[in-house]
From TrEMBL:
GO terms for biological process: 'de novo' IMP biosynthetic process. SUPFAM superfamilies: N5-CAIR mutase (phosphoribosylaminoimidazole carboxylase, PurE) (SSF52255). GO terms for molecular function: hydrolase activity. This is PurE domain-containing protein. Coiled coil: none annotated. It comes from the Bacteria. InterPro entries: P2CMN_synthase_LarB (IPR039476), PurE_dom (IPR000031). Residues 90-222 form the PurE domain.
Length: 231
């Protein structure tokens, strides 16, 4: 029995939620609005929810004509349909170094919320003004998982990693000047961090960081009694 639907231009993985816990997510860049619309229709039929990442405003407006219930966020370029089927205990804290990093931070925050996680945001707390970060020390130490987004030299995740006993997921961004090399410099900085146990995702990959964080909360909630159904 096929576990995908062949639309000719693509094969929609309708079994992914059964295998992994979450439906297939549509990567919007490089796809036409018509193709995205067809894929969305199949995913909505099977899962009653869908997420599209890296979607331009122009395509979002076109899709809203077909799916008026969708919500589009211009900062993250994410389009959402439907609500999560469950809520995990715990909290993901998304931190970012500067406001230029918001497009990645919000991609992480909205993805995690759509996957059923409670999310708190702490933005513009880069190491150039360390007091801004330390003002949120209590929130930082209480979080279950931390997603830390930074461009430039990428120092913020290392600092946060030295403050907590929880998983830290570092996200380098393409924000920075010349020798920043479009995100390569903070990526290498995070990979060579002295903060123990920190994991690193690809440049600008807020989606990947959120997915990993949600899987951590999902694992922590397994056993049934801790998982909270939606009211």
């Amino acid at each position: 029995m096929k576990k995908f639907e062949d639309l000719g231009f693509c094969k929609v993985d309708t079994d992914r939620e059964q295998r992994t816990g979450y439906p297939e997510v549509i990567y919007g860049e490089g796809k036409s609005a018509d193709h995205i619309s067809q894929i969305m229709s199949r995913l909505i039929d099977h899962h009653e929810k869908v997420m599209v990442t890296r979607l331009s405003k122009e395509k979002a407006l076109s899709l809203q004509e077909t799916f008026p219930q969708v919500k589009y966020d211009e900062t993250s370029r994410i389009l959402l349909y439907g609500e999560p089927a469950r809520r995990y205990p715990g909290e993901i804290l998304v931190l970012c170094a500067g406001t230029s990093d918001l497009f990645v931070a919000e991609e992480a925050a909205l993805t995690a919320e759509w996957m059923g996680c409670k999310v708190k945001r702490v933005y513009d707390v880069g190491v150039a003004g360390i007091d801004r970060l330390l003002a949120h020390r209590e929130e930082i130490t209480k979080a279950s998982v931390l997603i830390v987004v930074a461009g430039m030299e990428g120092a913020l995740p290392s600092v946060v990693g030295g403050m907590v006993k929880r998983p830290v997921i570092a996200v380098p961004t393409s924000v920075g000047y010349g020798a920043h090399l479009e995100g390569l410099t903070p990526l290498l900085s995070m990979l060579t961090s002295c903060a123990s146990g920190m994991s690193v995702v690809n440049i600008d990959n807020g989606f990947g960081a959120a997915y990993q964080a949600a899987l951590i909360l999902q694992l922590a909630s397994e056993g049934g009694e801790n998982e909270k159904p939606l009211p």
